């Protein structure tokens, strides 16, 4: 039986099949977002992020960590719907597994230490057998950091915040189609570039502006 150490606070007992159940809070990045990853075959680019608080008001700060904020999510790229935990990223999984491995290794070391660190005298008391166990270093815990994404958005249907690579078709919170948000953003960027170009023309002339 494994004696949990650092994982004790996250241990929530056993499920119906007798497997240990843990609830581990995920680390949000500096912008208050956590990474998610679609595992559907053929889906690209898979990775996206969601704000740690759904329906967050403008300017409101996110919590530093989250525990399953919703029951299910939608992939913003392919629209696949699944449970929150099913969108775990590879880096997050490696981080959790490394913490579990460290706790299991610590329990095994304790068992060996209690078993072998004994002194057993013989019947004539002239010979004494000593067994000593020196534990080695514990496995290290992997660290992970959420990736930087190019575009942060807020769904105009549910208000949920998220970040994606390039253009995404769906809101990961409610599944609504959000292509219009990307188009509006692109139009705004183009308009700002046109305004910037006009200002340059006014300042240095059209021939000079072409070189910018």
Any overview of this molecule?
The chain has 212 residues and is α+β, with helices and mostly antiparallel strands. It folds into 2 domains: 1-177, no CATH class; 186-212. The chain is 27% helix and 20% strand. It has 3 helices and 12 strands; from the N terminus they run ββββββββαββββαα. It has helices spanning 90-116, 179-204, 206-210; strands at residues 11-14, 20-22, 26-27, 33-37, 47-51, 65-66, 72-74, 81-83, 118-121, 128-131, 151-154, 161-164. The strands form 5 sheets. A 4-stranded antiparallel sheet has the order 4-5-12-11, with no helix packed on it. The chain has a two-stranded antiparallel sheet with strand order 1-2. A hairpin with a 5-residue loop joins strand 1 (11-14) and strand 2 (20-22). The radius of gyration is 27 Å and the shape is elongated.
Would you list the SSEs in sequence order as H and E? EEEEEEEEHEEEEHH
The N- to C-terminal Cα distance equals: 69 Å
Mean pLDDT: 76
Arrangement of strands in the largest sheet: 4-5-12-11
Radius of gyration: 27 Å
Helix/sheet category: alpha+beta
What can be said about the biggest beta sheet?
4 strands, antiparallel
Unreliable spans are 54-68
Inertia-based shape? elongated
Task: Bin the strand percentage.
Answer: 15-25%
How many helices in DSSP terms? 3
Strand element count: 12
Fraction of helical residues = 25-40%
Number of domains: 2
């Amino acid at each position: 039986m494994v004696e949990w150490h650092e994982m004790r606070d996250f241990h929530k007992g056993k499920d119906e099949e007798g497997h240990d159940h843990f609830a581990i809070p995920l680390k949000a990045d500096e912008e208050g977002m956590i990474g998610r990853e679609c595992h559907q075959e053929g889906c690209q680019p898979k990775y996206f992020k969601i704000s740690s608080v759904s329906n967050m008001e403008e300017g409101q700060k996110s919590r530093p960590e989250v525990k399953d904020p919703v029951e299910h999510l939608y992939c913003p790229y392919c629209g696949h719907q699944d449970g929150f935990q099913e969108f775990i990223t590879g880096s997050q999984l490696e981080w959790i597994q490394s913490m579990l491995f460290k706790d299991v290794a610590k329990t095994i070391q304790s068992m060996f230490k209690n078993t072998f660190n004994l002194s057993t005298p013989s019947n004539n008391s002239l010979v004494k057998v000593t067994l000593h166990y020196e534990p080695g270093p514990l496995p290290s815990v992997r660290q992970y950091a959420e990736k930087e994404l190019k575009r942060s958005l807020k769904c105009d249907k549910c208000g949920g915040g998220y970040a994606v690579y390039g253009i995404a078709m769906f809101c990961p919170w409610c599944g609504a189609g959000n292509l219009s948000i990307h188009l509006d953003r692109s139009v705004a960027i183009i308009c700002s570039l046109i305004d910037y170009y006009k200002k340059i023309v006014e300042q240095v002339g059209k021939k000079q502006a072409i070189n910018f």
